[in-house]
Structure formats: structure tokens, C-alpha cells
Amino acid sequence: MNDTVDKLVIFLAKRDGIDKLVKTFQYVSKLVHWHAEATHPGIANKAKQWEVASGLSRKAFRTGRFLTGFNTLRRSPGSTPLFRFLAVFANAGEMIYFFFDHFLWLSRIGVIDANLARRMSFISAFGESLGYVFFIISDFIIIKEGLAMQRILQAYASDEDIPTEKVVEQKEAVRKIRADRIMRLMAVAANIADLVIGVADIEPNPLCNHAVTLGISGLVSAWAGWYRNWPS
């Protein structure tokens, strides 16, 4: 119990930890609003207020986060020309998303012209979606490479002529590859879910803009991020 509490404290001390918690509030309240709108308008109205407040607070909390992508490119641009190419477009898209999200937040709270909200939302969502596409491609390439390396290591470890300590090393390497694969699959799930939300802003349509689609996508993204950021 104490260990869980300690991990929760560490999780909530992170900016991403708080973001995933508030994102959970945001999309749970969206689903509650949809479910209660016809039968319990009072509850639906409170849920909508909670959803809007959560969304705006997340935008405020992400102030300055567009610099994260720049810092990532500066420190680790990629190990190969392909990954450098993917990293540039993925992080550039994310930087556009977070940068223009500032103006979207300011327009929605009335600090700047409210008529800018739709335009800022489109630019932000377009950058976000572009970034997610390249992040997803990168993760799938790394997952594929990890599977190939895992097969090689397992074949090597099954050789009866190699020393026991080498077998232990190979098994540990396989364990790390599997753990990395789980994290990347969580990232892919979150990015696909957020891509659906981004598409709903770029090109509104009945499927992506339905409250259930948005609610489930938001929760998948939040909980996948929760899993990735939870202290080991």
C-alpha cells in the first residue's frame, strides 16, 4: 500500500502525470455529459462544465511545452538519417501543436479575439496529427527491429555450447526488448487515439466527432500515458 502511495506521489509530481489525470477527468466528464444529456440535464450540465474546465486547465498547464520538442531534437536528433528525418517531422508537428495551443487557450478564455479559436484549433490539430503520424511510424520501425533482434538473441541463447553467463545476458537483453516493446505499443495506442481527436478538429465528421469516439479515444490516450509514466 505504501509503495503504491509513494509511486502515486512521484507520478503526480510530474507534469505528464498531472496532465494524464486531468485528461481522465476531461474525457470521463465528456462521456457522462453524453450519457446524461437526455435524461438528467442538470448532471449533464455539470459534467460539461467539468469537461471544459479540465480542458482549459490542461492547456494552461502545458504553457511552454513546445520547447520540449526543440530540446529533444537538440539532444537526440536520431541515430540514422531515417530516424533523424522522422524525428524532425514528429517533433516539429508536436511543437506546432503546443505553440498554437497557447493562442487557442487565450482565445477561449477571452484574452484575445474569440473568433481566432477555430483557426488556432485547426493549426494546432494539424501540427498535432502530423507529429503523431511520424511518431507512430518511428515506433513501428523500432518495434520491428526489436522483434528481429529478439529472435536472434533467443536463437543464440538456445545454443547448448555457449556459457551459462552468456545465456543469462541474452535473456536479460530479451527482457529489455520486450519491456521496450510494451512501452512503444502504449505510445502507439496513445498516438492513434490522439490522432482521432486531431482529425475531429481538422475535418469534423460524424464518426470522429461523436462523443463516445472522442471520450474513448481520450481515455485510451490518458491511460496509455498513465501506464508509460507510472514509476517502475
From TrEMBL:
Q: How does it sit in the membrane?
A: Multi-pass membrane protein
- Record's InterPro entries? PEX11
* A single GO cellular-component term on record: peroxisomal membrane
Manganese keyword on record: no
Where are the membrane-spanning stretches?
82-100, 120-143
Q: Which Pfam families match?
A: PEX11
Q: Where's it mainly located?
A: membrane
Q: Which GO terms describe its molecular function?
A: identical protein binding
On the tree of life, the source organism's domain of life is: Eukaryota
Q: Which UniProt keywords apply?
A: Membrane, Peroxisome, Peroxisome biogenesis, Transmembrane, Transmembrane helix
User: Where, subcellularly, is it found?
Assistant: Peroxisome membrane
Its GO biological process annotations read: peroxisome fission; regulation of peroxisome size
Q: Which family does it belong to?
A: Belongs to the peroxin-11 family.
Q: Enumerate the PANTHER family for this protein.
A: PEROXISOMAL BIOGENESIS FACTOR 11, PEROXISOMAL MEMBRANE PROTEIN 11B
Name it: Peroxisomal membrane protein 11-4
Organism for this UniProt entry: Cinnamomum micranthum f. kanehirae
